[in-house]
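Pilot study result, target chain (181 residues):
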Amino acid sequence: MQNQDTHFLNPDHILSQIEIKAGDQIGDLGCGTGYMSFAASRVAGEKGKIFAVDVQKSVLEQVKKEAQVENIKNIKTIWSDLEMSGAINIAQNSLDMVFLVNVLFQIDKKEAVFSEAKRLIKQGGSLLVVEWNPGDMAIGPQSDKRISHETVIQLASSANFSQNKDIDAGRYHYGVLFKNS
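Predicted structure:
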């Protein structure tokens, strides 16, 4: 799969630093074009399930079409507003991992998104957050829209996640892996 996102983020490199097992259930919240969902689908395998969630129906249709063309059967698209607690149609405490990749800078109610991730992740599961590095750069959102590493840690901590480790998310991003403890 080729899209412009992979020039800035390398999903396979990011996933190589976190523990995804065959059969894992993963929610890609704010999936956009699905580049993380497609990478995770290969790692989780045919017994795994990737829930690609977004508020934009057009991008979900594109993810669904691409999955059909590529004969990928373990990705399910779900339309939902991440900022509405309890709105995502995925069973509570059912996911091994949730991704919040390049999405927080677009969201007003960030606490609600962390709360929703907490609702979905089973005990001992993980939350992966990848966001744009702070500062002015030629690419990405305006500097005032970017969320600092410290703010992400505070938001996750407020939702009762514990920081596991930082990951290398490339030149333009930082990544943090949290545990649902």
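One observation from the pilot: The first helix runs from residue 5 to 8. A full batch analysis is planned for the follow-on phase.
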